[in-house]
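job 3f2a | input accepted
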Amino acid sequence: MSTDYQQAREALGLALRELRLSAPGGRLTGEQLAQRLGGGWTKSKVSKLENGRQTASAEELQAWAEATGQPDAYPGLLAQLRGFESHIRSWRRQLASGHRPVQEAITAEHDRTRVLTIWENVLVPGMLQTADYARHVLARHATLMQSPRDTEDAVRARIQRQAGLYEPGRKYRITMWEGALHALVCPPAVLAAQLDRLAGVIGLDTVELGIIPFSASLKIYPGNGFWIYDERRVVVEDWHAELWLDDADSVATYRRVWHTLSESAVYGTEAQNVINRARRALNIRT
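job 3f2a | predicted structure (286 res):
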């Protein structure tokens, strides 16, 4: 967890503690506050929130403000929460209602983006996925995260977003590690169809697809996947969360990473050849 994030969470905890100690009827102990808050609340939970070891939801912040007799404090608490949650979006919170809301949130970013710059090292990017491939990826992620299963809704949302590939004025600059062409995150027949789809987008005037072959000399190791939305924002995916980075220095850093990686990529016919080799390696008759 980043230092900035933890500091922000501790600052929110301090604000909560101050509300407890300044309750209009007199300071409350952690146990007294937990009793006021009711079911699901314990003295231990109160302590974890105040010490920045747990992050409150918006609903919990509102309940806290009301239980301490200071409901007007809620907007300020919510602003603090939004201030750091906009940067670190835990999968636990994002997937509380399934994958579809996550897909819709990222669609909103796509809709206002003219140039989307993507690096992927282990998966075919969502913008180029077939429905079957997306279905397997999303279902496996839901199993891992123990989140609600809304796979078909999520697949539809992801596929609908691909309409942007055919809109004049948009640009998708995508660089991939060859390993993504071989990763059996789905049955071989599904991967074969996915590779056919991938080969089919080469030549679209909106898509610049580069693939880094296993044999390429690399100037930097192929780290986590990320997406750069114009010059505005970077989204980086990790196991515990997505990082949404808005500051200019972070955006510039990820652009340098992308450009450094893309120098090792092949394009056009050479990219087709890499895809075709991966397709043949599956040894599936058509």
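job 3f2a | The mean pLDDT is 93.
job 3f2a | closed
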